Amino acid sequence: MRTSEQIRAENALARVNDLNTEPDELRGLYRSYVDRLGPSIMMNGLGQALATELAAGSGSGARQRAHRRLYENIQGWLCRSDGNIYPDGADLLQAIMANDQSKFLLAQAEALAWLDWHKKFCRAELPETGGE
Question: Around Cβ 43, how many Cβ atoms within 10 Å?
């Protein structure tokens, strides 16, 4: 049986591999946004940090697409159907607002744990260019 850490790492790596077909500009921007999201969650809380990511992701430029992709990847992890934090949550921000504080704290901790793996894989696989 695989551990939670193995499942988390596998998903985090798969999301990085999904970026292989994207241009280097978007991949570099994505990497820089991943580096910043953990501290943003710690300072502002999960909901506010994700709302900021989602707002920055509206539009079609590389920057907007990178922000949106990061939001979608976190949402995909926390709202997956195999019994994670919000298994029925089609929209992460709605799920955060509709549930109690204990679920929110669990989701925040899980997002940070997933981001720890994701950041490592991004640093290993994605270009460092593109930071703002």
Answer: 9
**CA–CA distance, 18 with 38 (Å, rounded to integer):** 21
Terminal CA-CA length for the chain: 42
With beta carbons less than 8 A apart as the criterion, state whether 92 and 86 touch.
Answer: yes
Report the distance separating Cα 15 and Cα 111, nearest Å.
Answer: 14
Amino acid identity for residue 1 in this structure: M
SS3 content of the chain, % helix, strand, coil (to 5): 75, 0, 25
* Amino acid residing at 53: E
Residue 28 neighbours by CB distance under 10 Å: 20
Q: Which of 65, 87, 62, 60 is nearest to 75 (CA)?
A: 87
Half-sphere exposure of 19 (CA within 13 A, CB side): 28
Give mean pLDDT in consecutive 10-residue pieces for the chain, a chain of 132 residues. Answer: 95 98 96 98 97 96 98 95 79 93 96 98 89 52
